[in-house]
Amino acid sequence: MATAPVILLPPSEGKADGGTGKALRIANLSFPELEEHRATLRAALGAAMKGKEPGRAKLLGVKDKALAAATSANLYVLTSPTMLAIERYTGVLYDALDVASLSVRDRKRLNKQVLIFSGLWGVVRPDDMIPDYKLKMGATLAPVGKLSTWWREPVTTALASTVSGTVVWNLLPKEHDNAWAPFSPVHMSTKPSAVFSVKFLDEDKPIKGERAFTTVNHWNKLLKGALVRFILETGADDPNALAKFRHPEGYRYDRTLTEISPSGTIVSMVRPAR
Questions:
Q1: What are the BP-aspect GO terms (predicted)?
Q2: Where are the beta strands (DSSP E) in 107-262?
């Protein structure tokens, strides 16, 4: 029996406040082998949150009331209430995924197949109970440096047994994708059988008889959320399965635009020119 595909997602910039779960139970988080690195980051983040406002604002990318709230969340990350990661993360991608409307079967698939990359936790599963926090994967935090680079080896090692020989749908933006290197020489023995990433394109009017496209940025997260639902519902483990994907905005799989890169296969979903 084929192994179910693994789906890699970023977290969301926005997060739900509060929670009804007990304070973080470190031992219960997925991938406990990452705890040493998580502990190092918690300590570094706690120290940074006691620093001056300009430094905190630069690190977290927010200011004023948002900075005060983010600082508080980070200082009390070990004692504040928790909620499921899939409910903690909000935003366009997660709204489009609409986890509350998934069937029982697909909710189970979600918890098993989806991995969420995080600046503070490295990787979590949707059913991990986590507190509110703020720390981007692309941030640079003293003394560890840029988080995506710092996480790369421990995250790749932690995911090795999960992705080995498995189809992976990599829906990570660049800064999160930089925290995973399954095709590095030291990890070749545990590499996935295939890695597929997806780009969305709007087709423009032809230029000198050649097809022309604009890469979609604004709707990218919404489209990926809908795509995750499709993969969970169908078990899609090959780009050709996307031929049945029908997005309300009109994007369709175009196999003629498939690209092969050192990090996997890039497939295109195209909306025809209007």
A1: response to hydroperoxide
A2: 114-118, 122-124, 129-131, 140-141, 145-146, 167-170, 194-207, 210-215, 252-253, 259-261
Q: Round to whole Å and give the CA distance between 60 and 214.
A: 31
CA dist., res. 55 & res. 77, Å (int)? 19
Residue 139 has pLDDT above 90, yes or no: yes
DSSP state of 230: H
Q: Which of 201, 193, 200, 270 is nearest to 238 (CA)?
A: 193
| pLDDT of amino acid 261 | 85
Confidence band for 198, pLDDT divided at 50, 70 and 90: very high
Cα–Cα distance, 222 to 144 (Å, whole number): 33
Query: DSSP class of residue 99?
Result: G
H runs (alpha helix) in 50-182: 53-60, 64-75, 85-88, 92-97, 104-113, 147-163, 174-177
Pairing of the two strands 140-141 and 82-84: unpaired
